[in-house]
Amino acid sequence: MPNLADIVEMAEALESKAVLVASERCVAVRNRHSSCKKCVQACPVDAVSVGGNEVSLDSGACVACGACTTVCPTEALIPLDPLDGDLAASIAAATEAAEGMAVFACARIAARRLGDPDKHATVPCLARMEESVLLALAARGVQDVVLVDGNCATCKYRACVPGIEATVESANTLLATQGSDVRVRRASAFPDEVLAPDAQKSFAASRRGLFTWAGGTAKSAAKTAAEKTVAKVLNDAGQKKATLRDRLHMADGALPHFEAKRRMSVLDSMDALGESVVPTLETRLFGSVEIDAEKCSSCFMCTVFCPTGALVKSDEKPEDGTGSYLEFSAADCVQCNLCADACLKKCLTVSHTVSTEELFDFEPRLIRLPEPPKRAGILSRTKR
Question: What is the pTM of this model?
Fold first, then answer.
């Protein structure tokens, strides 16, 4: 078994990543005119950059807080530390051990070994927390969800505090929308129910976690080395860098759609909690689209660039035979604002106020568009 010095040396030598960039999902990659810079604004160390049909992450500067992965509307930034599935499994086991209380702790306060490691889940920073995990717990009957962090004033993640508060507020708004009494709360100390019986148990668990992490890192190193070797072979063989069209799998000028899984998880949890008790919801997760038909030229640029298919051209035709329809699904809208950014006439707006009836409606809303303006023919142009 390697000693601690070997593990530290190995960790420093590896180019480990806390976030995986799925660039084809980024709205700024889909359209260089995208105004979305949520990941850049959330990052406390300027490790994320967006522009010129590119999104990149400086792994050396990244502090693994997870803030960028929480705010990205299209899930183009995927957290690896921990993975969503691993975090869900961890909190499930901890909640059972804590007899129904779900407690998440930032790594800083967890390192003090005051909490029973079997009764709480640890994340590098509470900025890693997002609504789908929190609402899933409430949907499964958890009555008390607690986020515990240390002294943020002296923490390297302290710039993430507004983002953590926004997540808590967002989750509680969604819970209240469904009439749930469950609320997510923050605390600066572990609840009595999850305090460690003794420091030795917590310390032993920390050592086990370290060796488990080291083993996983070694496997990751092998994979990274293989990927670099393949990349070098391709480069040596004269392979050209994939074009934007190739990267986005464009066919016939249309961009592909993909599902925002976290948003779908939130909707499933909300549905499990019961029917909505308010007519409208103020949220950062979903959106509502309106189009000024008098300004619209029916260019359909909004449907070309919409990443999730919230806006699509409808096969339905107006009864009077003029114009056309768009179909809009609030459940699929992630409020990325790309439709508005791509709109040539600037006649489309995205609102964070969403009708709860429309949010849970299986049928999309039809938005009527006018007949596109006719282009003057060559022969009809006036000679000068």
Answer: 0.81
